[in-house]
Every structure is written in C-alpha cells, then in structure tokens.
User: Fold this.
Amino acid sequence: MIPRASLSRPPLERMLRIHEELRCNALVNCTRLVKLLEVCRRTVVRDIAFMRDRLDLPIEFDPRIQAYRYTQPVNAFPTVQVTEGELLALLVARRALEQYRGTPFHRQLEIAFDKLAAGLKDRISFSPADELRAVSFKNIGLGKADLTVFNALSSAVLHQAEVEFDYRKPGEEGAARRRVHPYHLAHRENLWYLIAFDPERSAMRTFALPRITAVSPTGAGFVRAPDFSPEKFFANALGILGGDRNYLVVIRFNAGVADRVREREWHESQEMRALPTGGLELRLRLGALAEIERWVLGWGSAAEVIAPAELRARIRSTVNALASTYAD
Assistant:
C-alpha cells in the first residue's frame, strides 16, 4: 500500500487551494483543510504561515468564527510575475513541445508548463488553448527515435556509463557492434544524435539514433573529457558533420533569394555582404564540405559557389551527374 504522505499535493498546489478557499469566504479552519488537503495539521499551519509571512498575503485568524480569513480582497495568488510578451513566449514554447514527442523530455516539459500555467490562471483573461491556435510549427522530415534507445542513452550520458550497441552506417545493410563513451545527445536538423568517444578508434564519433539498436551497458564507467562542450564540437559544422579542416566558403546568391538568405542565421561564423546586383554574398568557416554541398544544391541556380575550389568542383561533378540522370 502506498503511504498516505506520498499522495499529498505539492506545497504550491496546497497553497493555491487554500487561497481559493479563502477567496470564497468559506469557513477555513485547520480541521476543514486537513480533510480537504489530506495532510496533517502541522502541514496546514506551516503552509498558512508561509503564505502570510513570505508571500505577504493578508491572512489572519478570526477567533470569533474560529477560522482564517483574508482581511482584504486578494484577486491573484502571488506566484510568477510575467509580462504579456513573456506569456506569449510561454505559449509559443508550449506549442514547440511537439518536436520532443516520443522522448522523456516531452512529458517532463508538459508537466513543467502545466505547473506554470496553474500559477498564472488568475492573471490572464484568455484561454491559452485558444491563443495557441494563432501559432503553429511545421518541421519537414522529423526524425524517428526509439524511446527505449533514447532512455538508455540519456541515462548513460547522465551517469557517464560505457555502453555497447549495434550501429548501421548509411547505405549499409548490416550493423556493427560499437562500444563507446556517450558524451552528449543533440537534436539537430530534426534528428537526435549521440556524440560519443570511441575507445577503439581513439576519436569522437557522431551516431544517428534511428540507426542505433540493442543498447546495453558494459558495467564500466568513464570520465568525460573536461574540455568537451557541444558548442565547441559543432563549431565548424553547418549541421551535424564537422571536420578538421578550416574552409572559407564563399557563396553568392541572386537577388531573387537574397532576402530569404538574409532572414536566417545559418552558422555562427556567417558574414553577409550586399552585392551591387541586389544579390548577397555569404561567407562561412566550416570544417567539412559534405553538408554545405547539399545545402547549396538546394538553392538550385540561385546560388553560386565562389570558394573554395574543391567545393566548386564537387558541385560541378554533382550537376553533371544530375544532367546525365535527366538527359531525356
């Protein structure tokens, strides 16, 4: 049987209920509150004292009616103070939770949001559900992640525990067994990735979660390198794939797409320069070229690679292959 104490409401929820009782001018005494909240008398007295002394609520005990009451009107419980802009940001964040569906973060974030919303229910004059209809998110190609795999890896990252798993590389039919030290889970470009140190290869590696199966702990621990940080690891990557080179990438866009390029933050190193033709020149510092090649091709003839020469040659080769594919 579950102990009664473990079923009691959290302190904030208890105090919100006491506040509602006092606002309704009900006969609010310890006997009533003990039954209502299912806690002991000492807890009730402590909650009321906190509301009076720490939250500055005008509570007093009236000996004539043997009950607590508010000595003046109180319209709102003094929880979090938010501005209209902050509230809108909170609503947008609530809608953005959908990208975390299928992971433990989704439920935890929902609970956190609901707690904040409960504390604000006396401070807003509209329904968050109605307001959320004015905001939407659409991510194309959302990645799929097995919840069991995600849970196992997130626990290993948290506790610095070595794991083994089967991993299938892109384009390969079979999977290989890998043993790694999991450092970090990253959600980039709509997909979850594991950043881990591979002892057999003595190097950091990136693994896409949809291609990971059969995760099991080895029983060994590890110590994360003190100089590791996600920001440093991804510093020279356009998306997820970094490298050990230092390419200065220069791309020119025509006037038809210049505004679309200008309106976004593509990379921390980006520099933009307006061109006399109405177009735009974009400069980036990257460690690898595979991702930027695919990105440039996505702009079609609206983008031209100026540098480096290696990237220009790669684009030319791909364009020639496309021309052959569509020759008919």
User: Anything to note?
Assistant: The radius of gyration is 29 Å. Confidence is low (pLDDT under 50) at residues 1-7, 122-131. The chain has four domains: 4-70, 84-134, 147-233, 247-325.
